[in-house]
Amino acid sequence: MSFSYHCVGQSRMYREIVEVGGTGRKKCWQIVLLLSLALLPVVLTKTIPTLRAAHEGAKTSKEVGARRKLSFHEEMIAGALARAAAQCVMYPADVLKTLAQTRRSGGSPPTLGSITKAQLLKGSLTTSVLALPAGAIQFSVFRLLKDEGRELAPPWISTASIELMAAAVAAVAACVVQTPQEVIKQRMQAGIYPSFMQGVASLLRSEGLRGFYTGFLPTVARNTPTVCISFTGFARLKEAYGD
């Protein structure tokens, strides 16, 4: 009996809510708006000091960071982690590019529906870990040559020219480590090798050590301008807009 009375009461209350006309809804919105306007000064009073303190803290940390320069080993570790993170995040897009390039010559390119999640992620962890030494070499060589070049170069050579030459050498040095990884990675993405370790064994057996550097010169020709533009462009923008 009590349950039936409760249901009747609930349904009656629901009908009363539904039967509220446009005037009632308008009054509700007016009340909400007035409450919001009333609470706005309180919110601003609490928020503005917090934002001001955060801004002052950011300025202080920026000044401290500007005075402290990363050490050689810190920059090498940061570069290695950045390279590995970038390759891990962009690995699915790299798979799509490789599949489209390899299958276009033998027929129509693959559709998104025909590519599985396993294909997009196959080998991503291994190749991302192996990107660590390439990133470490690239950033550490650039840092070393840039610092040494500034001390040894004659004054008529600009800083941008020194950074450009350092970036070019760093790109070539990184390709020595990167090219074998790229060869295995692309053949895995194309379905030639089932796994990274099996690819290493198969490539070593069929083509020898020379096979790991297939396409070394095209890789250097592709990476060197990219690294030069990235490193020097970042340095110039950093210098223009403040360290």
UniProtKB/TrEMBL annotation:
Solcar-type repeats, residues: 158-240
Annotated source species: Guillardia theta (strain CCMP2712) (Cryptophyte)
Transmembrane helix listed as a keyword: yes
An annotated GO cellular component: membrane
Membrane association type: Multi-pass membrane protein
Classification via PANTHER family: S-ADENOSYLMETHIONINE MITOCHONDRIAL CARRIER PROTEIN
Database matches in PROSITE patterns: SOLCAR
Keyword line: Membrane, Repeat, Transmembrane, Transmembrane helix, Transport
InterPro entries hit by this protein: MCP_dom_sf, MCP_transmembrane
Keyword Transmembrane helix: yes
Family note: Belongs to the mitochondrial carrier (TC 2.A.29) family.
Record's protein name: Mitochondrial carrier protein
Subcellular location(s) of the protein: Membrane
